Request: fold
Amino acid sequence: MAQSDLYMLYHGLYLAKFGYTTESLKYFESFQVQDDDTFIITYPKSGTTWMQEILSLILSEGDLTPVLTLQNFEKIPWLEAKENDQLVAKLSSPRAFISHMPYQLMPSTFFSSKAKVIYLARNPKDVVVSLFYFHQTISFLPDPGTFEEFTDGFLEGNVMFGKWTDHVKSWRNADLGDRILYITYEEMLQDLRGVIKRILRFLNRQLSEEALKQLIEQSQFKAMKQNKMSDSLPVSQKIMDNTKPPFLRKGIAGDWKNHFSPELEAKFNAVINEEMEGTDIKFLLDKEHQ
Ligand code: PPS
Reply:
């Protein structure tokens, strides 16, 4: 699957040619990060769009205009994606960006800056399920084959942005002190208000109780699905097949249970646990998050 013409190789990672170009990656590498920038960093399918909605509303102090009038990529742009340079140039400080890059591939100015990172991770079993359906819906990604075949490719890192374990470990080991906040998708489902309050403290921001309530309402899965600006990608119908699973598909934790056979689960756990040994990333695999 990974040998597909649809991918390019970037520092050993597969990236979809449709979304990234040599120019966009050069732009990313030489990007001038500022001290008051905030990055949402995720491995694909970990809840990026959800966090994008939330951070937009925090930055607009609860004003709904951006989330009702701008498409996802316009609200908070993907720094490494193609044709986003003009959009980024228009942003005023404090700026916010999204990136799927592992820590070591961040722009060099990021490391010397004071820019902050919200790192959002999700149970990898639900990530692989979500990505599997995304490959069915999006024509710029290779046909995923069967779920078992796709999961094997995922464990080998033959998917966009490589191995999940490498990504999570790179950011967990990042030497960023209090510049980084770790959040999980599962925590967001369990206690969104608590998570938003942590983000507000991390960014030294405040919201009125009314704005907070509105933010929580607006970023519910149902509300985001009804908002065409949120349940969308900047691609034509030819690229995103409307008859296939939608972009905002189920929005739950534990859908993996409907897809993994006991054998596949055992294999998956063995690989992930071995690659995670010695790290403190247990929080993602904890029972209550499954
Ligand atoms: S992408 O393509 O990498 O940007 O995808 P990403 O946004 O990271 O992840 C998509 C999954 O996040 C789910 N999602 C949500 N879940 C709960 N609540 C809200 N508000 C929400 N918004 C997005 C989305 O449905 C995808 O997960 P699955 O499991 O496929 O439904």
User: Anything to note?
Assistant: The chain has one domain: 3-289. Residues 151 and 276 are 17 Å apart (CA to CA). The domain at 3-289 is CATH 3.40.50.300 (Rossmann fold). The first strand starts at residue 7 and ends at 10.
